[in-house]
Amino acid sequence: MSCEYMKSNIDEKEETKIRLMRALVEKQDPSSKEVDDPTLRRFLRARDLDVEKASGMFLKYLKWRQTFVPNGSISLSEVPNELSQNKMFMQGFDKKGRPIATVLGARHFQNKLGGLEEFKRFVVYILDKICSRMPPGQEKFVVIGDLKGWGYSNSDLRAYLGALSILQDYYPERLGKLFIVHAPYIFMTVWKIVYPFIDNNTKKKIVFVQDKKLKSTLLEEIDESQIPEIYGGQLPLVPIQET
Question: What domains can be seen in the chain, in order of their start residue?
Answer without folding.
Answer: 3-69 (1.10.8), 76-242 (3.40.525.10)
